[in-house]
Amino acid sequence: MVPDGWELKGFGEIANIANGQVDPRVEPYCSLPHVGPENVISDSGRVVGVKSCGELDLISGKYQFDEYAIVYSKIRPNLNKVCIPGFSGLCSADMYPLWPKDGIDARFLLQLMLGPEFVGRTTAVSMRTGMPKINRSDLAAIPVKLPPLAEQEKVAEILSTWDKAIVVTEKLLKKSQHQKKALMQQLLTSKKRLGGFQMPWEKHRLEQLFSRVTTMNTEANTNVVTISAQHGLIRQEEFFSKAVASETLDNYFLIKKGQFAYNKSYSNGYPMGAIKRLNNYEKGVVTTLYICFEVNDEAKCNPEFFEHYFESGLLNKGLSKVANEGGRAHGLLNVKPSDFFGLNVFVPEISEQKAIAAVITSADQEIQSLQNGLACLKDEKKALMQQLLTGRRRVKIDETLQESPC
Most CB atoms closer than 10 Å: which of 51, 56, 136, 142? Predict the structure, then answer.
């Protein structure tokens, strides 16, 4: 249904889509900045990491755009990559520059294209081909609901308020994450000592502090967990969106809350594999490819301290020396349990371990709070888009929406 005062139009009626390409190898085009799909952050309308055509050694034809253009990625529309760069340049042939026609506010058109209804329609059309993409004629035919210009401007103003809050929160989150990383590198290596602690740190082999866990799943536990970089040990269904373990789980290790597991597969951010602690469940089962272990004596070894220690990557140097390079070609590091538990660590006495863990945990809590706030802002904006861009909720032109981002 079309709201009162709104119009239903084809996208081609409200925007001019670019045609004709230029050669990025010749001037003046060679010196212009280039925007590709990889430079646009999904769902945000923002551009990052732009370089000139010459710097990128581009050779194939590109579209030219100016500072008034909207640039839209026609490849995989579900990724929702659209932006207003705000400068003149060239864009990938996998993108369309387009310009709003008279009576169309550019900021509103950007929000409209970012909105769930538009993305849903373009995604559905793009799935007709093997490589999901939308061609010029299909894009021009996408139906859109269009309010009067004054209402367009007000909707764009409201939604941009949420965009600004999201950007501020993302910057605060990034800053907190960098601060935590620096804090870990200082506190976990004794480069920086907390007040009141002066005892020297001591060298221990992991086998002096931890014991290997090889308990088999004889109790038929079905809580299969896997290691996630962001969430630690989580249920397999949550990580893969499906169960991938074998139907028979009696040949899996059973681990308990507070115990650790080392995934010997290298991944993004974990070049020598990741070590995580089971925090979210009382028990879980893991593949026997993992090396599982637990603290010998919590009076001498604080689990929270070592959770941060392992996360910092301070074991990577030692692991790189014992890993069989031949196994890395398949993503699996051939680290023997005996070699793993033979690695050395330098640690303080228990009271300093606990104090360091408390400081880093506090930094974690700050990061989690910012992440929660960011998720809240994104959810609120999405909900507003579903209402304001469809006319389900109308705004008065002479006043602002009586809400503000959380």
Answer: 142
Radius of gyration of the chain measured on its C-alpha atoms: 27
Closest CA to 108 of 45, 47, 30: 45
Whether 402 maps to a domain, the answer reads no
Q: Is the pLDDT of residue 160 over 90?
A: yes
The helix (run of H) or strand (run of E) holding residue 119 is helix 116-126
Q: To the nearest 10°, the Cα dihedral for 271, 275, 280, 281?
A: 130
| Cα angle: 317, vertex 345, 313; to 5 degrees | 40
* CATH (domain of 119): 3.90.220.20
DSSP state at residue 141 = H
Co-location of 89 and 224 in the same domain: no
Phi and psi at 265, nearest 5°, equal: -90, 130
Q: Which tokens belong to 200?
A: 């020297």
**pLDDT for res 399:** 53
pLDDT in tens, 45-97: 999 999 999 999 999 999 999 999 999 999 999 999 999 999 999 999 999 99
**Domain extent for 47:** 7-146
Q: What does the buried/exposed string (b/e) look like for 397-406 if buried means 16 or more CB atoms within 10 Å of the residue's CB? A: eeeebeeebe
Instruction: Using alpha carbons, select from 174, 165, 84, 177 the residue that is nearest to residue 378.
Output: 165
Q: Do the bridges between strand 283-286 and strand 253-256 make them parallel or antiparallel, or are there none, so unpaired?
A: antiparallel
Task: Please tell me the total count of domains within the chain.
Answer: 2
In a domain, 15, yes or no: yes
348-358 pLDDT, tens digit each? 999 999 999 99
Cα distance between residue 216 and residue 76, in whole Å: 44
